[in-house]
Amino acid sequence: MLLAPNPANETARLAALRALLILDTPPEQRFDRIVQFAASEFDAPMVAISLVDANRQWFKAQVGLDVCETGRDISFCSHALLEQDLLIVEDATLDFRFWDNPLVTGAPYVRFYAGAPLRTSGGEVLGTLCVLDQQPREIGDLERSILRTLRDLAMEELTAAPVVRDGRHRDILASTASMDILFASTSRSVSGSAI
């Protein structure tokens, strides 16, 4: 098994991932819908939004996988961090990087992998939207385009996450809401007075 080297921007990549405050959060329907649609569209038994941390890959959303994370050292997605576009492995048993990987030789017996890197506007790859199968497969141009589009949707959701989770943003939103309530009550007072 060939271990993937760390990207040159690993420190910045991990900082960008952790700034999202999304690791180890509960499932969310907005991500679940993306992987469910991908599983249906690709007729694939396994799909995940995988976020690659320092020593693990963690699944924000998944279909067909019995675990919520695996070691980064055995992760297909760690190889996808280095890709400019998609990482396609049509038959993992024939690929020198993966033929003896425990995810290939044992459960879930991955044969096919298609991973679309989740890249920030700053160029850091946080993880992938990936489609896996227990049978070797090929993927055509239309399917590649669909995977890229779903990846873009996942990335939009990921980058929207800090607004909801970041305490400073929450405080600002709470302050804004308080000002709105104050303004509304002040407006009612003024409109009810005999000015």
Task: Record keyword descriptors for this entry.
6 helices; alpha+beta; Beta-Lactamase; 195 residues
Give the integer mean of the pLDDT values.
86
Q: Report the major sheet.
A: 6 strands, antiparallel
The total of beta strands comes to 6
Instruction: Give the N-terminus to C-terminus distance in angstroms.
Output: 80 Å
Radius of gyration: 21 Å
- Give the topology string: H per helix, E per strand: HHEEEHEHEEHH
Tally of distinct domains: 1
- The portion of residues assigned to helices is 40-55%
Structure overview:
The structure is a single chain. This protein has helices spanning 10-19, 29-42, 77-80, 102-105, 141-165, 167-192, and strands at residues 46-52, 56-63, 69-71, 87-89, 112-119, 125-133. By secondary structure, the chain is of the alpha+beta class. It has a single domain, classed as 2-Layer Sandwich (Beta-Lactamase), CATH 3.30.450.40. Strand 2 (56-63) and strand 3 (69-71) form a beta hairpin. It is globular, with a radius of gyration of 21 Å. The model is unreliable at 162-195 (pLDDT under 50).
Per-chain topology:
Elements: H1 10-19, H2 29-42, E1 46-52, E2 56-63, E3 69-71, H3 77-80, E4 87-89, H4 102-105, E5 112-119, E6 125-133, H5 141-165, H6 167-192
Antiparallel strand pairs: 1-2, 1-6, 2-3, 4-5, 5-6
Helix pairs in contact: 2-5
Q: Could you write a compact summary of the structure shown?
A:
This protein has helices at 10-19, 29-42, 77-80, 102-105, 141-165, 167-192, and strands at residues 46-52, 56-63, 69-71, 87-89, 112-119, 125-133. By secondary structure, the protein is an alpha+beta fold. It has a 6-stranded antiparallel beta sheet with strand order 3-2-1-6-5-4.
